[in-house]
Amino acid sequence: MKVHTAEVTMDHFTQISREGLEELREAFNKIDIDNSGYVSDFELQELFREANFSLPGYKVREIIETFVAGDTNKDEKISFEEFVSIYQELKSKELSETFRKSITRRDGIRSFGGMSGISSEGTQHSYSDEEKVAFVNWINKSLAKDPDCQHFLPMNPDDESLFNSARDGILLCKMINMSQPDTIDERVINTKKLTTFKMTENLVLALNSASAIGCTVVSIDAHDLMAGKPHLVLGLFWQIIKVGLFADIEISRNEGLIGLMTDGEQLDHLMSRSPEELLLRWVNHHLHNAGTETIGNFSEDIMDSRAYFHLLYQIASQEEYEMGGKIDMRGLHEPDLDQRAELMLQQAARLDGRQFVSAHDVTSGNIKLNLAFVANLYNMYPAVRAQMNGNSIDAAQIEGESREEKTFRNWINSLGVSPYVNHLYWDLCDGLVIMQLYEKVNVPVNWKKVNNPPYPVLGANMKKLENCNYAVELGRDVAHFSLVGIGGENLNEGSRMHTLALVWQLMRRYTVLVLSDLGDGEKVGDQIILNWVNTTLSQKRKDTQISSFKDKLISTSLPVIDLIDAIAPGSVKWDMVKRGEKGMLNDEDKLSNAKYAISLARKIGARVYALPDDLVEVNPKMVLTVFACLMGMKKTKPLNQK
Description:
The chain has helices spanning 18-31, 44-50, 57-69, 80-91, 95-99, 129-142, 161-165, 170-179, 196-212, 222-226, 230-246, 267-271, 275-289, 306-316, 337-350, 359-363, 367-380, 403-414, 432-440, 460-478, 488-492, 496-513, 526-539, 558-567, 587-603, 612-616, 620-636, and strands at 6-8, 14-16, 38-40, 77-79, 103-106, 109-115, 122-128. By secondary structure, the protein is mainly alpha-helical. The chain has a 3-stranded antiparallel beta sheet with strand order 5-6-7. Strands 1-2 form a two-stranded antiparallel ribbon. A two-stranded antiparallel sheet has the order 3-4. Helix 8 (170-179) runs parallel beside helix 11 (230-246), helix 22 (496-513) runs parallel beside helix 27 (620-636) and helix 23 packs across helix 27.
């Protein structure tokens, strides 16, 4: 994470830049894992650490005592606005001088700073040694046998190997495929005779592919990664790893999670929970079965290793894993917490589950790494069974998200909205994410008309409904979207059909926004894009012109591949392309071409969110976005165009 750029005014009170405010929000959201809009006072130290402003415990306690004394609500909870106020006050005092030192190392945080290349503001960037070590060990284990990674594996966790390893793009591409298989067609990755240009191609491919799986990469480019900027490399690796760790923590992937429903809870409510919340429930499910105290977070509540000992014991006791009696619980009686944590991790190693955390990471309550540790355990040993608790569950109710829904959700998250969208409908039902999307497509939002959390206990849904009504009003009257039959209540209720209709129009607007100044200001419509596709293909003597975005020829992906060759000559390896006899391809060859086409488009710089299946099945909406992104290359120039 970047350190928050700021400047001190004449009255010596620190003003936080917009970028800095966004980064503070990112730090806050990482601690606020239940998306309540608040953090507890005991989470404040971890929050400051996440914001790269580590404070000693006594100082945090002083802050909490002062805050509690002036807390009119007496709820001992801290909102984002209150956190920013505390942060500003601290930054304006003498502690800020220590914070701005050019090179420091404090509490496992390495900091390096200087002047920003794009402004006159002083900047500082930090990264966590603990995270670097955890990610290096995870990557060393996960890619140990990959033949394309042997030139930098195994990496040394005690030096800067991780940051240097990212510079050729191969490792990033491999990690993306490990988190989301088949995202990148590995035929497209440059692995031999790596020139600077070929490494840049790999990095562009990795960044566009990371965006397609929901990572936020708007502030990162290939030059940053080639330079091995630690805070950016580490941040991107964490996003990629997190996508993979959380991929299966949903009910459609494991119906056993239904067993985590509470009495009287509706399935929709459980399905709308974030992976972090489901993991917390999963741990507490096992702690309850163990007859011991449950936990409320992955920081303070796990620091004594008690919860982990019982969790490991419960996992090993499951008959399906045939590991009964493997966990030695005597370590619970060790009085030294660091030694106790080490003994616990030795037990985790018996289950091959000693990843992401050291004993110190446990006893210091590192939320990010403990979350990764637990997620990895869940993925190996879910150990839950569907217990309906008296509820009647229809199998149709637990259908997973469609490919289209996942594409939209990944697109939304790649733009850096807050909070992170885990469920496309329920996470949009208060209108706040939709407002942020409007701003991304240059539709102005009057935030004074928007109700922000925390909402009142009584009337909370009314406040959310007002937001949704305003969202529909903006779409209809300002963005001029087609919203016939769509009202705020439809969005507020999480209506699939109506929410999809609005989100699709937002995504389409975003995709063609880059083309808005083509044609002497003429609005870029479907026909203009179609005409450009056919004209470009015709000029290069390609015979794959299409009649519409529903043309069956698109199922072969040949029009896309030919178009890429037309705008970025030399980028296509024709021996990889299936042509078939008389243009007839079987399903396997069509999918092969589609995977190649999508990855190739991303490699030359097109931010494509569509999936190979969208081309094979000729999904006209997604096909349009592919061609629009390639048309955008006319303005920005592909990587290999001089």
